């Protein structure tokens, strides 16, 4: 009998394929997606006990189609509209073949990714819809991952599907002129999913494996579909190299352990080797982009035998190149750390100064945390302690908050007057 984990992985792989086939045939993305979710639920309940069907994709397609048929038949008051939908060309169809023509699954998966990342949707809606339609996660699972009520997430997904319907978007690949922009959105959505899983923006848990795992799985899928896209390769490498640290990020008491203090024997060496191989290869044939450069930086960290042996000059050179290609405040923030490691903490603090006036970072807890670290290195325990406490107040992640408060508590304030006996 196939295990529940194997069935879950199979269903997630089949979900976008079945949804693509239904949308090709019927259009109506909203209803087709709901039908697929019901088919996935039925499979999750039946297959563990009855066994996986010989043709699982066909089984899911049949169940989902029956669900659609039942829904349409029950709409007696809207029969005229049902007939019109049945005879007209679906909004998504274009020149698409019939669903039973069994088109390559990869084509539909890529089309779904582009559709879920439609520019008419807000980024939060793109993330939720991608996890639901392409990732095969239930609304409840997505809501739990983002610490939102299920009803709130359900409304967000419903509005996203309705917005896609309202735009008249077609189930086709975007034009050559639009493809790069849409692919950039797809990569960013996958990266946002990964980041939320790797360092949760709120709640008691530092890491949410269901999100990082799903982001890596979907990025692997995208890489298989677009093996010649250097930035997709770089994104996959970056995720693997970053996630390789996961087991070492928490101490025995659940406390956060920074990179420099992690036990590197606990890093996932298979993930490190795969990530290093991917980024090393892609840089030989693709012009470096932002994800590739971030992956290259992660690879330098990963290949260092210890924190003390990290090649900081190389990391600084990569950050300078990244700042030229894709300048933004977070790149500057990370570059300041590299500058501090090469040229001293005062040089790093000087680089942070403009970010204090930048409205995008002025109140961000990461800026306060980096300032605290560099002030501590510069031998200013009082200001460092104040900055650590400011960073702790600014984060909604409980593990980060505890770590920052602990760093503040450990500092000895040099200028605090000592008490003397009378």
From TrEMBL:
GO terms for molecular function: DNA binding; sigma factor activity. Residues 113-164 form the RNA polymerase sigma factor 70 region 4 type domain. It comes from the Bacteria. Belongs to the sigma-70 factor family. ECF subfamily. One of its GO terms (biological process) is DNA-templated transcription initiation. This is RNA polymerase sigma factor. Residues 10-76 form the RNA polymerase sigma-70 region domain. Keywords: Sigma factor, Transcription, Transcription regulation. The keyword Mitochondrion does not apply. Pfam families: DUF6596 (PF20239), Sigma70_r2 (PF04542), Sigma70_r4_2 (PF08281).
């Amino acid at each position: 009998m196939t295990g529940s984990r194997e069935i879950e992985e199979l269903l997630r792989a089949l979900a976008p394929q079945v949804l693509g086939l239904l949308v090709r045939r019927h259009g109506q993305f909203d209803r087709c997606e709901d039908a697929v979710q019901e088919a996935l639920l039925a499979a999750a309940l039946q297959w563990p006990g009855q066994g996986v069907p010989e043709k699982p994709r066909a089984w899911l397609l049949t169940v989902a189609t029956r669900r659609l048929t039942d829904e349409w038949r029950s709409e007696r008051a809207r029969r005229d509209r049902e007939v019109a939908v049945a005879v007209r060309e679906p909004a998504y169809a274009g020149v698409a073949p019939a669903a039973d023509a069994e088109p390559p699954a990869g084509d539909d998966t890529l089309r779904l990714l582009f559709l879920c990342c439609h520019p008419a949707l807000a980024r939060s809606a793109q993330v939720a819809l991608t996890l639901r339609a392409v990732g095969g996660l239930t609304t409840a699972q997505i809501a739990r991952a983002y610490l939102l009520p299920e009803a709130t997430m359900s409304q967000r997904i419903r509005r996203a599907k309705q917005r896609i319907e309202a735009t008249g978007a077609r189930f086709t690949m975007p034009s050559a002129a639009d493809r790069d922009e849409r692919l950039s959105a797809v990569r960013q959505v996958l990266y946002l999913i990964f980041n939320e899983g790797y360092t949760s923006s709120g709640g008691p848990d530092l890491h949410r494996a269901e999100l990082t795992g799903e982001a890596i799985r979907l990025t692997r899928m995208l890489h298989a579909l677009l093996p010649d896209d250097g930035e997709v390769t770089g994104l996959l490498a970056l995720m693997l190299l970053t996630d390789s640290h996961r087991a070492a990020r928490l101490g025995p008491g659940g406390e956060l352990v920074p990179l420099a203090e992690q036990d590197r024997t606990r890093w996932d060496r298979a993930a490190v080797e795969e990530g290093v191989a991917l980024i090393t290869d892609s840089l030989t044939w693709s012009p470096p982009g932002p994800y590739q450069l971030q992956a290259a930086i992660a690879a330098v960290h990963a290949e260092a035998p210890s924190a003390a042996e990290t090649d900081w000059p190389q990391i600084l050179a990569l950050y300078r190149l990244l700042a030229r290609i894709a300048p933004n405040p977070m790149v500057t923030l990370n570059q300041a750390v590299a500058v501090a490691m090469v040229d001293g903490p005062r040089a790093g603090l000087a680089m942070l100064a403009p970010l204090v006036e930048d409205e995008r970072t002025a109140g961000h807890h990461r800026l306060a945390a980096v300032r605290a670290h560099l002030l501590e290195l510069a031998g200013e325990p009082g200001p460092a302690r104040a900055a650590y406490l400011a960073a702790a107040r600014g984060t909604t992640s409980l593990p980060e908050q505890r770590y920052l408060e602990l760093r503040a508590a450990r500092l000895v304030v040099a200028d605090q007057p000592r008490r003397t006996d009378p």
